[in-house]
What we know:
The chain is an alpha+beta fold. The chain has two domains: 7-59, Thrombin, subunit H, CATH 2.40.10; 63-159, CarD-like, C-terminal domain (Methane Monooxygenase Hydroxylase, Chain G, domain 1, Up-down Bundle). 46% of the residues lie in helices and 20% in strands. Strands 4-3-2-1-5 form a five-stranded antiparallel β-sheet. It is elongated.
Amino acid sequence: MFAAGNLVVYPAQGVGQIERIDSQQIGGAACELYIVRIRSNNIILMVPVSNADHVGLRPLVPAATAARIRNSLLTETERTIHTGQNWNRRFREYSERLKNPDLSVVAEVLRELLLISRNKELSFGERRLLEQAMSLVTGELAEVLHVDEQALRDELLACYAPPPAPEAEAC
């Protein structure tokens, strides 16, 4: 059980803080709710305490796990990604994986989209997914590792930047 003031992660929304625990009457039954404010967009979520595990509400990853995920993202930048499926199918698959409460699954979506974007332009939907994955991963890693989120974003984007085009030979 969480307490007011705890930092938590809600899948597909990111890091939030439990502002309070309320009791409300819902459908004639008393229900305890976590009132969670998502840090990235200031959205307020009401999560039933009895259903928190089922929806994936969880504490932030431990520092060792966060460091491992960050290191993996920064060093494993040369993987080969098979993009045989069309962007629509990839979009649906990635959308589902972004809802996973496991940060390493979300980080893998981020890595794959960054690798794909290195070689080709992403569709509008894929760019949105890339931004969502980036926000979810960097938001949690920055909080756990006590680093600047924008600096972490910039570091990741630099690692996955496409190689410079070869210079044309002078005639």
